[in-house]
Amino acid sequence: xxxNFFYFIIALIIILPYLFxxxxxxxxxxxxxxxxxFFSTSLLFFLFVRYRFKSLEIxxxxxxxxxxxxxxxxxxxxxxxxxxxxxxxxxxxxxLPIFFRDVPFLSKTPTLQAxxxxxxxxxxxxxxxxxxxxxxxxxxxSNISRxxxxxxxLKFSVPVLLLWIVLSGTADIINILPFPLLKQxxxxxxxxxxxxxxFLSIVVIIAPAIIQRLWQCKPLEDGEIRTRIHALCQRAxxxxxxxxxxxxxxxxxxxxxxxxxxxxxxxxxxxxxxxSYLNPxxxxxxxxxxxxxxxxxHLLFYVFFLAVFALVLYYANPALTMLESMILLYDPIYNRIxxxxxxxxxxxxxxxxxxxxxxxxxxxFGFFMRNFERQADCYxxxxxxxxxxxxxxxxxxxxxxxxxxxRPNWHHFSIKERIEYLEKCETDRKWITHQDQKIRKGxxxxxxxxxxxxxxxxxxxHGETSQRIQDHLNDKLFQKDCKPYIEVYExxxxxxxxxxxxxNNLAWYYVTCNDPQYRDPSxxxxxxxxxxxxxxxxxxxxxxAESYYANGQYRxxxxxxxxxxxxxxxxxxxxxxxxxxxxxxxxxxEND
Length: 592
Description:
Blueprint: H1 2-20, H2 31-59, H3 65-93, H4 104-108, H5 110-140, H6 146-176, H7 180-186, H8 189-214, H9 224-236, E1 242-245, E2 256-259, E3 267-270, H10 272-277, H11 280-295, H12 298-328, H13 331-334, H14 344-378, H15 380-383, H16 388-401, H17 415-427, H18 430-461, H19 464-478, H20 483-495, H21 500-512, H22 521-534, H23 538-550, H24 554-567, H25 572-591
Parallel strand pairs: 1-3
Antiparallel strand pairs: 2-3
Helix pairs in contact: 1-3, 1-5, 1-6, 1-14, 2-3, 2-5, 3-5, 5-6, 6-8, 8-12, 9-11, 11-14, 11-16, 12-14, 12-18, 14-18, 16-17, 20-21, 21-22, 21-23, 22-23, 23-24, 24-25
């Protein structure tokens, strides 16, 4: 079920670039054709999902449990990925968001447009869940109803959507309200990052209280079990707000959980099946696992990893822009681009953002999740003399769920591996220390790697390396005819008329091109002024200064270059040289 969180995040990554940085192009496909294609592809998806699970149902009586378990999860994963592909097709090939732009309220609230497409993606997932239900019943011998099955998936997945809607919707409201300074802040990458971190800090504190209400959790009644759990928490020194029933899959799964960074918003969750199938010692062992997540600060680490990912994207953005510029300037690729074609820039952003997301969460975040879970298993030895009750619990999970014991996933070792490791710890407790050391070493490597990545990204986006690459690129470009590159950016401008980087680069060509035939100082000045209004950065102010200079406005050129120098974080020598150039030109004019 954790995979659904990441499917929704990838869906947001697909949706947001188009809606928040929209293309001005109108594709070749008319509204009526788009609607026909939309319903046709949706129907094909529906029929395909139905066919896959119907085919699986036929094999239930003929295949072993290991095959069925893996096949079921494979079909769910593959059809979910297909739903993501279908979502991207509707947005980037059919250009469906274009048809919302004439709706006044929707055009001013990208979040509402995003919600429309998120609901479509959610509908696709609900089709998968609905058709997978019978297979789930037959394979895992479950008596959960279809409605309970689908609703459980919904309740587990929706909180992440609601949190994003609040985050993004608040930003929309800020943009609508007459607060120019606040609006300007959240329009910059730095402001967006600060806003995200501020919101994240609030959410991670209060979200558990909201989520447990959305899940319709009810307090565990007073009695022996609640008393034992409370005593165990007191013994471990862990405070909480409440112990509640977790109605996931109707409470029929043997599982428990904990959420909340602070005691007033921390909740321990238990299912009815856990209380029914486990004896008191086994319940204690499960709760000790959840206590370990609090004592070992695993929840805090998860927030930290999420913040680091946001920081990586923030620093990667300028480097990605440079990469996009290099790719867009490669003639054979660009010659196929027009406003009516697929948006290459957004495709590049999607490809790299989704790739970074998958690599980071699948391998980095996944590594720590698996090992945090193992560390939590080992914590049972901190509170008890043996792990036998926890081992018995894991065996009961296999028996009741009919899941294969040796099937691992990205965030958990397999149950077989978990049992084997606990048995090793039973015979030699050094394996507990070994697991702690493994996490510490992994975290040290992670921090070292992230710092190295930040240094590389910073140098490619802000440092001298960035300037040398840009200078080398410019030198190469100016050895060639300016015409194709001016056409590149003019075409890109029709796709993104409010892209500050495109405006800046086009202005730079018009003002510095070696071929007088393509020099156009007046258009360069117009473009540079528009770029500065959108993004007031040193390199754009430098282009504006050069445009003023080419139009004989030396004083304004000097003022713009002096401001560029103040904002520059590297290669200040270039700006100083240009200031002297403009001062000299201004002085010569005054002396004439």
